[in-house]
Amino acid sequence: MQLKKSYKGLRIFFAAFLACLVGGGVAAGLWLPDHAMRVTVNILGMGMAILCLTVCKTEAVYWFNGTDFEQAAAAGSARRRAFALAHLRRFGIFALCLLTFSIVAALLRLPQWIDFALGAAGLAAVAVSTVRLRL
User: Between the CA of residue 65 and those of 41, 84, 104, what are the distances in Å?
Assistant: First the structure.
């Protein structure tokens, strides 16, 4: 795949992501007020996994922090895909674990702040863990 430098897809993703995050949070606040934070934090986790999936499909790994377009273009398609897939695995597993925890927490009637704390700490930990990944 020939790589072309463009941030159009990233801008579209973040506009849609922001709309889903705000819209989902507001909708959850109206229809599921006891679970609004859970819904919002899960939208955030899934959104980051979807961003990684988008990068996998487009091979636009230069959207990731620490990687520039020249490095990405020189790396070749197979290396770009492997690099993007490593990110997707981490964020995807995190999103699934967070969703599972949130469902269990809701069934056990645990406070929502626990979901928020785990979501924020987990997302930060996953993001930091990707710093070691090299193209």
Answer: 22, 12, 33
Which pLDDT tens digit goes with each residue over 117-134? 999 999 999 999 999 999
Those residues with Cβ within 8 angstroms of residue 3's Cβ, 6 or more apart along the chain or in another chain: 59, 60, 69, 72, 73, 80
Q: Return the structure tokens found at 72.
A: 């990405």
Cα 118–Cα 120–Cα 122 angle in degrees, nearest 5: 60
End-to-end CA distance of the chain: 16
d(CA 87, CA 49): 8
The per-residue DSSP string of 24-35 comes to HHHHHHHH-GGG
